[in-house]
Amino acid sequence: MLLSCLVYSVVSTAATVSSSSAANPRVLILGDSLSAAHNISIEQSWPELFRHKLQTVAADAKLINASISGETSGGGLERLPALLQRHQPSHLILELGGNDGLRGYKFSQTQNNLGDIIQLALKRNIAVLLIGVRLPPNLGPLYNQRFQQVYEQLAAQNPIAYLPRFLQGIAADRAEYMQPDGIHPTALAQPLLADKVFRAFQDHYFTGTASSKSSN
To answer: Could you tell me where the beta strands, DSSP code E, fall in 85-215?
Structure first.
């Protein structure tokens, strides 16, 4: 798979959100190819579109996109301490786990890794937005259902924001929204993804709430 690490400038907030961090957020995105402009330009990707949206409500917001195509929850966990030290984010958007599912990793392994990522962030008073992803339907409904439970349980067990079903309304709705591999959204779908993330982020961190309630 394409190996790329993207770094931008945008946003921040935490479980206990200070007025300064809400006004000047510094956001770190830790994701895989869904967030790493896979086969599209950086300018078309949802993180870049999200950055522009974020700066309409927080002009001094900063966004660091540390997403890498092919990344797993374990890889993200290994990279996170250095990223936190270097970038000092106020918010973390966590979009990982899909490659774990595709590679048949144990659900408990993925859940533990994502849980450790969340705890590393929360211990630094970094607000977390967890993005739930789905797997291709050919893996079967039972496998997909158990995979979704990983995210649901993490959201229920931690004081974080949760955006479930990231690709709902995209993956199965219009063919032009998905690349031929059936996994990665096209450039046409990126504005829809950016809108989803921005709404979730705004609802939780710019309305004075930072709970584990979910946004569709």
So the answer is: 91-95, 127-131, 161-163
CA distance 107 to 214: 21
Token readout for 58 is 């927080």
Type of residue numbered 97: G
Domain boundaries, the chain: 19-205
Note whether 138 and 100 are within 8 A (CB).
no
Contact (Cβ atoms closer than 8 angstroms) between residue 163 and residue 53: no
> How do residues 131-175 score in pLDDT, each as one tens digit?
999 888 889 999 999 999 999 999 999 999 999 989 988 877 688
- Which two three-digit tokens encode residue 196? 């989803």
Give the SS3 label for residue 91.
strand
Q: Which of 12, 21, 33, 69 is catalytic?
A: 33
Q: Is 184 labeled as catalytic in the residue annotation?
A: yes
Domain 19-205 fold is Rossmann fold (3.40.50)
What one-letter code names the amino acid at 89?
Answer: P
Q: Which of 38, 91, 184, 204 is catalytic?
A: 184
Q: Is the pLDDT of residue 130 over 70?
A: yes
Question: Could you tell me the pLDDT band of residue 215, with boundaries at 50, 70 and 90?
Answer: low
